[in-house]
Amino acid sequence: MNMKRFIYFFVFFLVLTLVLFYVMETLSGRTLKQSLVHASKNQVVYANSMLDGVLSEAQMYAIQYTTDSSVRYFEKQKEVLGVYDSQMKKNEIGNMIKNTLVSSQSVDLVGIYWKSDETFISTNSSKTAVVPFKEVTRRGWKNVNGSLYFFSVYPYIKEPSSPSNIQYIVGVKLKTDYLKGLLDKALNSENTNAFFLLNKSFLVGDRNVDPNIVKASTTMIEPDPKQVMEYEFHEADGDFVILSQYIDSIDTYLVTYTRLNDFLNPLNRNHRVFFISILVVLIIGLLVIAMFYRNFYRNVYLLLKRFHQVEQGDYSTRIKVHSGNEFDNLFQSFNHMVEQIQALFVSLKTETDLRQNAELKQLQAQINPHFLYNSLFFIMSMAKTSPDAVMRMSKHLAEYYRYMTNINSREVTLASELKLADHYLAIMALCKQIDYRITLPLELGSRRMMPLMVQPIVENAIQHGIEGHQGAHRVFVEVEDMNGGLRIVISNDGKGLSPEEIAQLMERIENEEPPEGTKGIGLWNINRRVKNSYGERSGLHFMTNEWGGLTVCLLIDFQLKGGELA
């Protein structure tokens, strides 16, 4: 069982390692992605702050020239000045706005357009430069052909309610290249790109911008000037994270996107290599466990199983030996041991049978010849006066000796054993004044037991009990069922024993060696035979009865036989 637990623990440990690795891979990828997104958001915020500065600068220039006094009064001054002075005034305004281009890196064009006479002063001499100014109807930012303008109108304090009320328009155009340069500030790595969306249409960006990203951005992004919005986009080329920052002043989105595969693929490759390594370790571990189970655990289990069979008394069991197995020597030793045990038990059984037969022959040979002589003398003395007594004595004596001389079995029935005791007591009752009684329940008569177990005790009760006490005449034999065994009680009213004598008698019959001389040899023999055949729970016990005589209890436990389960 401990070996199984070890195998289960090893498999659990390998599986747990794979699970922990999977969790580690997931967390590391997620952490890397979060770090990348966080860095990209910081870059977007930084680029947005720089763009706010550029937008504020363009608005400042437009408002500055809108409120400049030379610009405000230029139209009225033309009415009172001559052509030359008017031109000089115009040149003065042109030089003023040109200085803006010198001091600003983000402004591409500054122009002033008077609607009444269509006078146009600009830092760009192109004839088409005035076109966007003619279409202005209000103050604010405007996308013109991909270029970003900020237009300011006069009157400035209170914006004209109608485009016809506008006196002049000041416009500032931002450099497209400078805006592209701001997009570079939003890039976190070489795998990141950025662009501007005005009214959700492409405004400014690198020509390598993915059109699918632009198209997806127009449908996904939402205006939220307070935070950078994050979106995920998946296409066949890879997975992307899209970030957008809404710029409320120009109604434009600053959009960046990063291809995650370029960052995660190296990490994923490392993880796959490690995962494959762990998987190989798992497979090798399982193979090792399988080999261990097949070559070690299974053999140990087989050996334990065979030992258990031997414990149950199956001495014919053997273990098949396979060449090349590390357990060959152990199995061969086990088989040799079992063979020796089996041979030993066969020898022991033979010796036991011989010993029991010898004991039986010894008991048969111990028939007291004085008992026979006394019986014959009784027959001779009663032949003339009581033929009936002679017949009874002859019958009991014949049955007694026929039983004693014909015993050739290791077991007899309890009824036949008590019948022998009855013949003996009947003979003794004819010779002496003896009152005897044998009580045997009918259901117990067929129980089998070793022969000559009761008669020697009954004979002992007559010779050492009744004959040694004046007036003694009673011998009772009772049989009781005792939870799978028998309790045979032989009581007499003859000479009893003191507690000290009973203790000494028990000590003599419990001794491994027989007592010296002939005193107590019969009881020792019976006690030893019962214990050898029916276990230590069986045996003889002695006590003083109510008559003052001795009671002998013969206990036989049939649940155990020969020290083993019956």
Can you walk me through this structure?
The protein is an alpha+beta fold and 566 residues long. It is built from 15 helices and 19 strands. Helix 1 runs antiparallel to helix 8. The longest helix is centred in the N-terminal third of the chain and has 66 residues, at 2-67. Mean pLDDT is 81; it is low at 562-566.
Concise overview:
The chain has 15 helices and 19 strands. The protein has 566 residues and is α+β, with helices and mostly antiparallel strands.
- Report on the biggest sheet: 5 strands, antiparallel
- Which stretches are low in confidence, meaning pLDDT under 50 for 5 or more residues running? 562-566
Helical amount among residues, as a percent range?
40-55%
- Span between termini: 31 Å
How much of the residues is beta strand, in percent? 15-25%
Question: Could you tell me the radius of gyration in angstroms?
Answer: 63 Å
SS elements, strand count: 19
Strand order across the largest sheet: 2-1-5-4-3
Task: State the helix count.
Answer: 15
Structural class: alpha+beta
Mean pLDDT: 81
Sum up the overall morphology in one term.
rod-shaped
